[in-house]
């Protein structure tokens, strides 16, 4: 079953509004989660590292005031796209690292399709 | 910085083996991963290999790692039409916040009946 869950899977919002995407680790605690963005037919690009209890670390070129990240608990990180515009339409996907006896494995959520109209 | 390269397309017949290749530049990579992405879906973890290993086999999947050449491959035996998808290799660079992945461009695998 799913190890990392995202919600919503699809969302349509009006230009200028904000939308929140949730990422949950289902049966393990994740002090660090990661948010990626994927445009059609392209690879995944890391947007930011979400740190539980502290500020997120953003990659170069990612606007921290536009993409608000909150990691208030060990199992939940949220990404809020503020004042969304059509060019923000994309596939957003999160990941979390799980430590097991067999090693560190990195699991991804199902992804969230955002369409801004 | 880290860079990961993959061939963009691979086409095989059902029942044949598929080999997807990947090269990376960061010699301090600790783990290397293979993910599968079907249209409109998230990423499914297929397998991973630790950097001190040369090979890892998991059912139909075989991962080969050549650290000297910084080359990683994924072999899918007895490829089925359900294996058609995009396959991404990704590395975790050493010394960075664990879990931060650098992805290749993805290889589109098409399996013909």
Please give the structural blueprint.
The complex is a heterodimer of chains A (about 120) and B (about 110).
Chain A: E1 4-7, E2 10-13, E3 19-25, E4 32-38, E5 44-51, E6 57-58, E7 67-73, E8 76-81, E9 90-100, E10 103-108, E11 112-116
Parallel strand pairs in A: 2-11
Antiparallel strand pairs in A: 1-3, 3-8, 4-5, 4-9, 5-6, 7-8, 9-10, 9-11
Chain B: E1 4-6, E2 9-13, E3 18-24, E4 31-37, E5 43-50, E6 55-58, E7 61-66, E8 71-76, E9 85-92, E10 101-103, E11 107-112
Parallel strand pairs in B: 2-11
Antiparallel strand pairs in B: 1-3, 3-8, 4-5, 4-9, 6-7, 7-8, 9-10, 9-11
User: What is the H-and-E element order of chain B?
Assistant: EEEEEEEEEEE
Structural class of chain A: mainly beta
Greatest interface: A-B, 24 and 23 residues
Name the overall outline of chain A: globular
Please state the average pLDDT score of chain A: 92
Q: Which overall shape of chain B is indicated by the principal axes computed on the Cα atoms?
A: globular
Please tell me how large the radius of gyration of chain B is. Answer: 14 Å
Number of helices of chain A: 0
Helical fraction of chain B equals under 10%
Describe this structure in words.
The complex is a heterodimer of chains A (117) and B (113). By secondary structure, chain A is mainly β. Chain A has strands at residues 4-7, 10-13, 19-25, 32-38, 44-51, 57-58, 67-73, 76-81, 90-100, 103-108, 112-116. In chain A, strands 2, 4, 5, 6, 9, 10 and 11 form a 7-stranded mixed sheet that branches. The radius of gyration of chain A is 14 Å and the shape is globular. Chain A starts with a strand and ends with a strand. The model of chain A has no long low-confidence stretch (mean pLDDT 92). With 113 residues, chain B is an all-beta fold. In chain B, 0% of the residues lie in helices and 56% in strands. In chain B, the strands form 2 sheets. In chain B, strands 2, 4, 5, 9, 10 and 11 form a 6-stranded mixed sheet that branches. A 5-stranded antiparallel sheet of chain B has the order 1-3-8-7-6, with no helix packed on it. Chain B starts with a strand and ends with a strand. The relative contact order of chain B is 0.34. The A-B interface holds A 6, 32-34, 42-44, 46, 49, 57, 93, 95-97, 103-111, 113 and B 31, 33, 35, 40-45, 48, 50, 88, 92, 97-106.
């Amino acid at each position: 079953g799913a190890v990392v869950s995202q919600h919503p899977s699809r969302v349509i919002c009006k230009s200028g509004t904000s939308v929140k995407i949730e990422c949950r680790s289902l049966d393990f605690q994740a002090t660090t989660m990661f948010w990626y963005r994927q445009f059609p037919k392209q690879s995944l690009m890391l947007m930011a590292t979400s740190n539980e209890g502290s500020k997120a670390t953003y990659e170069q070129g990612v606007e921290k005031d536009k993409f608000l990240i909150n990691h208030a608990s060990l199992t939940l990180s949220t990404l809020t796209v503020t004042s969304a515009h059509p060019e923000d339409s994309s596939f957003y996907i999160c990941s979390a690292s799980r430590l097991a006896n067999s090693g560190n494995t990195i699991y991804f959520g199902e992804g969230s399709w955002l369409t801004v109209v | 910085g880290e860079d990961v390269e993959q061939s963009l397309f691979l086409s095989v017949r059902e029942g044949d083996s598929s080999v997807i290749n990947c090269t990376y530049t960061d010699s301090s990579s600790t783990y290397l991963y293979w993910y599968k992405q079907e249209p409109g879906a998230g990423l499914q973890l297929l397998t991973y290999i630790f950097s001190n290993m040369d090979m890892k086999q998991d059912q139909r999947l075989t991962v080969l790692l050549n650290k000297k050449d910084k080359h990683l491959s994924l072999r899918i035996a007895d490829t089925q039409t359900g294996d058609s998808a995009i396959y991404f290799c990704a590395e975790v660079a050493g010394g960075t916040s664990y879990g931060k992945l650098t992805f290749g461009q993805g290889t589109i695998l098409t399996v013909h009946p």
